[in-house]
From TrEMBL:
Keywords: Cell membrane, Membrane, Transmembrane, Transmembrane helix, Transport. Belongs to the binding-protein-dependent transport system permease family. FecCD subfamily. It comes from Mycobacterium yunnanensis. This is Iron chelate uptake ABC transporter family permease subunit. One of its GO terms (molecular function) is transmembrane transporter activity. GO terms for biological process: siderophore-iron import into cell. It comes from the Bacteria. It holds the Pfam family FecCD. CDD domains: TM_ABC_iron-siderophores_like. The chain crosses the membrane at residues 31-52, 85-103, 115-133, 140-159, 165-189, 215-238, 258-285, 297-323, 329-347.
Length: 352
């Protein structure tokens, strides 16, 4: 056995190796947590596919998914409801990964993109599209992506000083978010009533009325992000060790940090463009996943699984809590996330 295989990682490890140089390593606890999250998400997806004005029992949903049922239930499940469920999973995963990246870069559990202010940038871009260009799904979505990216550039430039410090990034992001919030409120006061209603609905963050046309852009954004992550490799944990240690291990901290920053911004922008700004999933998912897996750092895969589980669960609550009325999923995540944020602040205060 070679020397690297004798390293003690402090817990039982699952190692998948493909010679000569590819190896994946994970603790059995992490694998178990991922399996549980995946199974729970699958069960919730089956339940959610049967929920609506025309309910479909779970056994019939399974028959439709397996191709054994081609009745009208297949139209309900595959054409009307499946896009919403897939988007909940994809957007939740994107938010979880984005939150994990920014929390790792800032080394702070509060360093999520919604706290830093990228959501407000997307909202400002959408508002400008509604007020100036007249709205439309694709116009609003593209403007939201542009707004989020421009906000990220501004925050990055203002917080960069001999490197990118995590605490400075959070403070600058909060300040930029406050300015953008005031700007958005000013636009709301100036635009027409029907435009303000459209903006208000988009601001809540909703998966209502999603169709297959909205699935492909989100899936494409995730594929691009995963491809870049595969090229960069698992260098995020090395960055968390500090720039000196990362440099000693052959990593260029500034360049790698910028790449991860871009991936995080891309994911949050794609998610906001599809469903509007959905708060607190990016904040809570990485930390909850870390607590369940017992991992020493923030894991991207576990954060993605937790984000998908949280958003799908929140959407199921939004569908059923005031049925037959459907709440925007953002209303549920804000409520649950607000409680989690209070808990997180209390824990941080006690540690000090």
């Amino acid at each position: 056995m070679s020397a690297p295989d004798t390293v003690d990682f402090g817990r039982r490890q699952l190692i998948v190796r493909r010679e000569p140089a590819i190896a994946l390593r994970a603790s059995w606890r992490s694998v178990a947590v991922l399996a549980i999250l995946g199974s729970a998400s699958l069960v919730m997806a089956v339940l959610a596919l049967g929920v609506g004005q025309y309910p479909v029992p779970p056994w019939q949903v399974v028959d439709v998914l397996l191709g054994r049922d081609t009745s009208f239930a297949s139209v309900l499940v595959l054409e009307w409801r499946m896009p919403r469920i897939l988007l909940a999973l994809l957007i939740g995963a994107a938010l979880g990964v984005s939150g994990a990246i920014f929390q790792a870069l800032t080394r702070n559990p509060l360093g999520s993109p919604d706290v830093i202010g990228f959501d407000f940038g997307a909202y400002a871009g959408a508002l400008i599209a509604i007020a100036v260009l007249g709205g439309g799904y694709y116009t609003i979505s593209i403007s939201a992506v542009v707004g989020g990216l421009l906000t990220a550039v501004v925050v990055y430039l203002l917080s960069y000083e001999n490197g990118l410090a995590g605490f400075r990034l959070i403070i600058v992001g909060i300040a930029v978010a406050a300015v953008l919030s005031s700007f958005c409120q000013w636009i709301i006061l100036k635009i027409k009533l029907h435009q303000a209603i459209t903006a208000s609905v988009w601001q809540q963050g909703s998966l209502n009325g999603m169709e297959w046309a909205q699935v492909l852009p989100v899936l494409g954004g995730l594929v691009v992000a995963v491809a870049i992550l595969a090229v960069v490799g698992p260098q995020l944990p090395i960055l968390q060790m500090g720039d000196d240690a990362a440099g000693a291990l052959g990593v260029r901290p500034g360049r790698v940090r910028l790449v991860y920053f871009g991936i995080g911004v891309l994911l949050i922008a794609v998610a906001a463009a599809a469903a509007g700004p959905i708060s607190f999933v990016a904040l809570a998912a990485p930390q909850l996943a870390r607590r369940l897996t017992g991992a020493p750092g923030v894991g991207l895969v576990s954060a993605a699984a937790m984000g998908a589980f949280l958003l799908l669960g929140s959407d199921l609550i939004a569908l059923r809590i005031f049925a037959p009325a459907e709440l925007p999923v953002g209303s549920v995540t804000v409520t649950l996330g607000g409680l989690y944020l209070v808990y997180l602040l209390v824990v941080q205060a006690r540690r000090r």
